[in-house]
């Protein structure tokens, strides 16, 4: 068998079309019912055979750590330790190594699962590079250990996520959704948002479901009618705690909602993306550049990023 010297994998960013949250569980996690959509902002990971594991970053996030605190290195170590003995290469499992080069286009700390995308791309690239022959189920199991969003980064498209978000059910839709993601330079801690969620007494009993969104996605409406209907059912239970912690986030969302209600912005809806502080604005795909420009003038402190979905999940780039 010929030895593959380098491979490249590409993974998508995401937006949560719906994010419903229940009361904290005994293990400290909150049960979720969420709808993921993969977006056409993608990170790539190129993997080359090497004597040890190392990584570098190009594009966005060049100042991010490249040690074991990075999900890329953790994903590589997990594969090596658990499945290195299955390599088809003429290399001892303990000697498997790779130089991993991450090309980042997904905004850093933007609530779009860029780190999870990098981990997913690493799993797919090293599975090929090291000739491990892992099944989709085995890759999913590794992804779930690395983080709640990593399994969806592998899957892509549209999916309903339950438990911590790692239990996925694919959803079908032939409709395209346009988004302007407003990236805030000042981060917002996800654990802090969940703590505020609890402090505000918002989690009671079972997690609310996402039936209203899944019904729209599976329904007969098409085009702008579909997107307008989808905008009417978007929901994020973490918006209230994020607003409580950050008055600027509340002001931005309220301003955009007022503009949409007045019919002067050309968008369908606005919502917090994930746990924030990124804000997602749903619009017609043909209106994204214009809307991005208008939002950039309204909020010069934010960075508007245009994206569409759904798109395919993590895959090898030939």
From TrEMBL:
SUPFAM superfamilies: GHMP Kinase, C-terminal domain, Ribosomal protein S5 domain 2-like. The active site is at residues 14, 149. Residues 70-157 form the GHMP kinase N-terminal domain. Keywords: ATP-binding, Isoprene biosynthesis, Kinase, Nucleotide-binding, Transferase. Its EC number is 2.7.1.148. ATP binds at residues 107-117. This is 4-diphosphocytidyl-2-C-methyl-D-erythritol kinase. It comes from Arcanobacterium phocisimile. The lineage of its organism: Bacteria, Bacillati, Actinomycetota, Actinomycetes, Actinomycetales. The gene is ispE.
């Amino acid at each position: 068998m010929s030895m593959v010297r380098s491979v490249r994998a590409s993974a998508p960013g995401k937006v949560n079309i719906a994010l419903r949250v229940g009361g904290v569980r005994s293990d400290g996690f909150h049960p979720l019912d969420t709808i993921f959509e993969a977006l056409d902002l993608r990170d790539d990971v190129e993997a080359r055979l090497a004597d040890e594991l190392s990584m570098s970053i190009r594009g966005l996030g060049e100042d991010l750590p490249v040690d074991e605190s990075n999900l890329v290195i953790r994903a590589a170590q997990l594969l090596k330790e658990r499945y290195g003995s299955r390599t088809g290469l003429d290399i001892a499992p303990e000697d498997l190594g790779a130089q991993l080069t991450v090309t980042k286009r997904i905004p850093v700390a933007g609530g779009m699962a860029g780190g999870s995308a990098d981990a997913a791309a690493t799993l797919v690239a090293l599975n090929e590079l090291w000739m491990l022959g892992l099944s989709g189920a085995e890759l999913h199991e590794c992804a779930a250990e690395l983080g709640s969003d990593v399994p969806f980064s592998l899957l892509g498209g549209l999916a309903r996520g339950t438990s911590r978000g790692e239990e996925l059910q694919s959803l079908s839709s032939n409709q395209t959704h346009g988004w302007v993601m407003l990236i805030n330079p000042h981060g917002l801690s996800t654990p802090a948002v969940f703590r505020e969620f609890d402090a505000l007494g918002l989690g009671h009993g079972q997690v609310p479901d996402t039936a209203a969104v899944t019904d729209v996605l599976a329904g007969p409406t098409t085009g702008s009618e579909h997107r307008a209907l989808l905008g009417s059912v978007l929901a994020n239970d973490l918006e209230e705690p994020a607003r409580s912690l950050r008055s600027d986030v509340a002001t931005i969302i309220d301003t955009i909602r007022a503009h949409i209600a007045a019919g002067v912005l050309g968008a369908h809806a606005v919502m917090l993306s994930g746990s924030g502080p990124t804000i997602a604005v749903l619009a017609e795909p043909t209106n994204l550049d214009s809307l991005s420009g208008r939002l950039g003038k309204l909020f010069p402190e934010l960075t508007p990023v245009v994206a569409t979905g759904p798109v395919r999940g993590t895959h090898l780039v030939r």
